[in-house]
Amino acid sequence: MGQSYRVAILGATGAVGTELLELLDQRNFPVSELKLLASPRSAGSTVMFQGESLTIEAVNESSFNNVDIVLASAGGSISKQWVKDIVAAGAVMIDNSSAFRMQPDVPLVVPEVNPEAAAAHQGVIANPNCTTILMSVAVYPLHQVLPIRRIVASTYQSASGAGARAMEEVKKQSIAILQGQEPKAEILPYPLAFNLFPHNSKLEASGYCEEELKMVNETRKIFGAPDLRITATCVRVPVLRAHSEAINLEFDSPFAVEKARELLIQAPGVQLVEDWDANYFPMPIDASGKDDVLVGRIRQDISNPNGLELWLCGDQIRKGAALNAIQIAELLIEKNLLKPALVANS
């Protein structure tokens, strides 16, 4: 038998934490011991994992002793609070928040794109933003053949990006509207059912919101292309799960549509979905629960001979968050980039 590893999920009761638990099981991740960590209000509840009932523990200073990998998905403030304890215990934190993504000494990794970056970790690896991950998986295979000069991205982001409570809120809002009642918005700033609005993350002086700038800055870091021109418009749409993106790519010279299709058919983590006769292309309902990023409607930009257009959908909770984190953990094991966790002081 191969070696197995001690894993902790920080934020185990959230939408991404629940997906992490499911993926560890589905992918037969070599877990010897699993700790499920959350806030005190969730402590004591139980979940099943591989036929065993596991108790949720309240996170504390000793939670990370004798742990090899911490899959953190409890928010940036929680990650910042516990990072020193995690690193001091000898574990590697794969963090799903934005807390460390742009720190120069923290690798920002999409395994299909820049797996080599993981080797430089100093105890922390950042999981990129969901929209960045989905776009990177789809466009990097083209960038490798002919460097992209400019990206124009428009995103259509589901309620899942705001968490499980936002998804439930949209369901309740939909019922209220259909019953002729006023929808209530408590998790999201405005009703999302039968509606849409520009992404509600903090607006910067540039007029761009944080979500849009994440796509810009993170993509540049992942691609190792600090001068890559990127602009993004991010919109929240009334879809429960899976994000969609319309991507316009500009190259220095024409990029044949058929060549792009050939590359994407072969690309890891990508599934080409195109039925031109039926006008059938990627949809969130098809991407939900899937590991791959669905890509299609690849066409020549009629306004620019050096431009390509494509459309993609991907499961925000899965590849946009939990799956990418698990793949990073698998990469650490494959490349022997883990060190033995320190034993707790007696």
TrEMBL record:
Annotated residues for binding of NADP(+): T13, G14, A15, V16, R41, S42, S160, G161, Q316
Coiled coil: none
Top enzyme category: oxidoreductase
GO biological process: 'de novo' L-methionine biosynthetic process; diaminopimelate biosynthetic process; isoleucine biosynthetic process; lysine biosynthetic process via diaminopimelate; threonine biosynthetic process
Oxidoreductase keyword on record: yes
Active-site positions on this chain: C130 (acyl-thioester intermediate), H243 (proton acceptor)
Residues noted as binding phosphate in the record, renumbered to the chain: R101
Domain Semialdehyde dehydrogenase NAD-binding, residue spans: 6-121
E.C. code: 1.2.1.11
Gene3D superfamilies recorded: Dihydrodipicolinate Reductase, domain 2 (3.30.360.10), NAD(P)-binding Rossmann-like Domain (3.40.50.720)
Reaction catalysed by this enzyme: L-aspartate 4-semialdehyde + phosphate + NADP(+) = 4-phospho-L-aspartate + NADPH + H(+)
GO MF annotations in UniProt: aspartate-semialdehyde dehydrogenase activity; NAD binding; NADP binding; protein dimerization activity
InterPro entries: Asp_semialdehyde_DH, Asp_semialdehyde_DH_beta, NAD(P)-bd_dom_sf, Semialdehyde_DH_NAD-bd, Semialdhyde_DH_dimer_dom
Pfam families on file: Semialdhyde_dh, Semialdhyde_dhC
Record-listed substrate binding positions: Q157, E210, R236
Annotated pathway: Amino-acid biosynthesis; L-lysine biosynthesis via DAP pathway; (S)-tetrahydrodipicolinate from L-aspartate: step 2/4; Amino-acid biosynthesis; L-methionine biosynthesis via de novo pathway; L-homoserine from L-aspartate: step 2/3; Amino-acid biosynthesis; L-threonine biosynthesis; L-threonine from L-aspartate: step 2/5
Keyword annotations from UniProtKB, A to Z: Amino-acid biosynthesis, Diaminopimelate biosynthesis, Lysine biosynthesis, Methionine biosynthesis, NADP, Oxidoreductase, Threonine biosynthesis
Record family assignment: Belongs to the aspartate-semialdehyde dehydrogenase family.
Assembly information from the UniProt record: Homodimer.
Described function: Catalyzes the NADPH-dependent formation of L-aspartate-semialdehyde (L-ASA) by the reductive dephosphorylation of L-aspartyl-4-phosphate.
Entry-linked HAMAP family: ASADH (MF_02121)
Protein name listed in UniProt: Aspartate-semialdehyde dehydrogenase
Record gene name: asd
